[in-house]
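WARN  no MSA supplied for this record, continuing single-sequence
INFO  ligand: nicotinamide-adenine-dinucleotide
INFO  echoing inputs
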Amino acid sequence: MSKAYSRDYWENVLSALTLEGRHFVDGKHRASISGETFTRARPMDGREGPTIARGGAADIDAAVRSGRAAFESGVWRRQDPLEKKRIMLKWADLIRAHGEELAMLETLDVGKPIMASLNVDVRLCADGIQFYGEMIDKLYDEIAPTGPNARALVRKVPLGVIGVITPWNYPMIIDAWKLGPAIAAGNSVVLKPAEQSSLTAIRLASLAVEAGLPEGVFNVVTGYGEETGKPLALHMDVDMIAFTGSTEVGKLIMGYAAQSNVKRVALELGGKSPLVVFEDADLDAAASAVAWGCFYNSGETCHASTRLIVQRSVQDALVRKIEAVTKSDIALRHPLDPAAQIGALIEEAHLEKVLSLIASGEKEGARRAFGAERVMAESGGYYVSPGVFVDMTNDMRLARQEIFGPVLAAIAFDTEEEALAIANDTIYGLAGAVFTRDMDRAHRFSEAIHAGTVWINTYDMSNFATPFGGFKQSGFGRDRSVHAIDKYCDYKTIWQQFG
Ligand code: NAD
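INFO  complex generated
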């Protein structure tokens, strides 16, 4: 029987929590070497949040040394694959067993609804660790074709120490996308979570050690981008940076790699994903996909369908249906209310950015169909109601810039050629979708939209078997799927001649 959750239940979970905000290095919690800490306002109510260690170059250096020592000792990478698998599966089980605690830490940090944290974020984090754990004893190397009396082994070997830098919008899920394959491949990791979302990263690391992961294989250093992320990306003994975040910071990461030791980089960056609806589409299905695709997680989703490109003849009808779905299904509530479908934005500065992009749309001539206003201000938190702007053109700021808030830009088109041109007229290429009953057109479109993932008559379907990532300035390298392991390995060829 499923548990009956209430706001009081979650308030009790919150008050019983012990909040650990120190780094996790070499298997132990540690304060910053400088002794410095920071706090920030909680997104749900603006009250002061937990105290977090403010990491610097010295903390990064200690974590990298710990990761390197674990790698060189072979304590993890040379471990029996079956034992490695057992440890990662135990780690996944511990994440599930501590699901309510982890969900609360995530909601406290980022303001997303508690039930989403529990049923989506915790679940997908555990599933990700399990997926890569299960691969460990199924990875084979190759023997290359050679002439007689020779044998060439092509081994896939781990890189060494991986720096992982992650954003705040889906902290646990994105951490698992990178930790899973990097650690399964035999590497050590130093994770620098976003300064807004440190708590679950620290807890994932202590659970990993509890599961049996050797000390030093997975370290966490918390802190700000410039102070903590930059020294990690510039570090001479880090072999790779796996980064998810904005395109702006992604470009800096490439620069740091070039300025230091030519470390490799994988970049999962921003998006402004088009969702194209033709007049022959099932408008009810399209309305639901648009509303959830754009407004889920308060729009703080890299592949949110923020540009609705809709055939002019059905624009008004579709927008009315989107409004109906939004108002009936997508409840904006306090994040600890189990009925909340969407919650708070991450912080006040981000709220201001979202409101200023909304204002720019109005100034440039876009018309508000509904929503897109600050609400629940009396809570002290940062809430914006989901909303739609129409009469938009693709050159308006609101159509071009990633908003990371629950705001949809609707742009009308008349011909298929025009729709495709608008869809691809963006610096990004993360995701896209087409809604039509004409399957020839659906396939033409899915081929022609320049994006890492394209959906036909649906949005946001995904699982661990499918790669995820972008084209163009949405970055390169893929998270998820069996292919993600490749990114954290390299080939080594070993020749032997025999008589
Ligand atoms: P951000 O780029 O501001 O920060 C991401 C991370 O980089 C944080 O940990 C931050 O501290 C760190 N950072 C900032 N400056 C740095 C520097 N100079 N050197 C090293 N590290 C630095 O992004 P954000 O605001 O945390 O997250 C939102 C962005 O992430 C959006 O652009 C979103 O589209 C993107 N994102 C992409 C994906 C994807 O899979 N493509 C998924 C989620 C989020």
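The radius of gyration is 23 Å.
INFO  checksum written, moving to next record
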